[in-house]
């Protein structure tokens, strides 16, 4: 199944944290098909913390969405992510944005990501690699969602 993921980090060596997360995904059978540039973004929800580095991935996996979520949580733990304040600083954050055209609504997982259409930093990275992917609930492309978002957050493309 084709998934679209979001990676983010605002602690330590941020770009290296994303690189390590990508490597761990591949070591666990998740094939990375495409990756966006890195984007520097201001934190959402809890100010007074370092800016984030974010990236979107298009991946292929035979895992169910629930199994993939379990793997992502395991990888975050392996990278020493500490659960603390909601929207607080973190070494790594890996979210499932889309799972093909599937909609998942369980107590542990909601796909498409519930705030996907509201977050410019996620939409910018995702639109770079899959602008024509369709949000299965809103029935709009990622490119259209990016054009329509009212999120005023700044997003800066980083040099590789």
List the main descriptive attributes of the protein structure presented here.
single chain; 160 residues; alpha+beta; Alpha-Beta Plaits; six-stranded antiparallel beta sheet; two-stranded antiparallel ribbon; 28% helix; globular
Fold topology:
Layout: E1 2-9, H1 14-27, E2 31-35, E3 39-41, E4 52-60, H2 65-78, E5 93-99, E6 104-105, E7 110-111, H3 120-129, E8 134-135, E9 140-141, H4 142-148, E10 155-157
Antiparallel strand pairs: 1-4, 1-5, 2-4, 3-4, 3-10, 6-7, 8-9
CATH topology: Alpha-Beta Plaits
CATH class, anyone?
Alpha Beta
Give unreliable regions as ranges: none
Question: What is the chain-wise order of helices and strands?
Answer: EHEEEHEEEHEEHE
Counted by DSSP, the helix tally is 4
Number of spatially distinct domains = 1
Overall, the morphology is globular
Measured as a percent range, the helix fraction is 25-40%
| SSE class | alpha+beta
Largest sheet: 6 strands, antiparallel
Taking the alpha carbons of the first and last residues, their distance comes to 29 Å
**Proportion of beta-strand residues:** 25-35%
